[in-house]
Amino acid sequence: MVKHIVFWTLAETALGRTAEENAAEMKARLEALVGVVPGLLRLEVGTDLLRTDASADIALYAELEDRDALAAYQAHPAHVAVGELVRAVTTSRAVVDYEV
């Protein structure tokens, strides 16, 4: 199994929406990938509660069957489409992928 964890910081405004509105849109679109992308076993998206200087705005936690499933997830058209939104509304990204 591969665990895929991503943290994003959002722009204050982007695409004519606030960071909060964009966070909600990102969350909905990312969660919609479950059941669409083969090999994606679990996916959670959460928004930061404390909003400290060290906080990211959004976290994604996903479990995929294996490395091949991770590669397929990254190339899947539905994921690529979500990525276009994500790149338009975020200012930074950090990611960790690991096997268990």
Brief overview:
By secondary structure, the chain is of the alpha+beta class. It contains 3 helices and 6 strands; from the N terminus they run E-E-E-H-E-E-H-H-E.
Q: How would you sum up this structure, described in words?
A:
- This protein has 100 residues and is an alpha+beta fold.
- The chain has one domain: Alpha-Beta Plaits.
- Helices cover 35% and strands 38% of the residues.
- The strands form two sheets. Strands 4-5-1-6 form a four-stranded antiparallel beta sheet.
- A hairpin with a 2-residue loop joins strand 2 and strand 3.
- Helix 1 packs antiparallel against helix 3.
- The N and C termini lie close together (6 Å).
Key features of this structure:
100 residues, alpha+beta, two-stranded antiparallel sheet, 3 helices
- β-sheet strand percentage: 35-45%
Shape: globular
Structural class: alpha+beta
Largest sheet: 4 strands, antiparallel
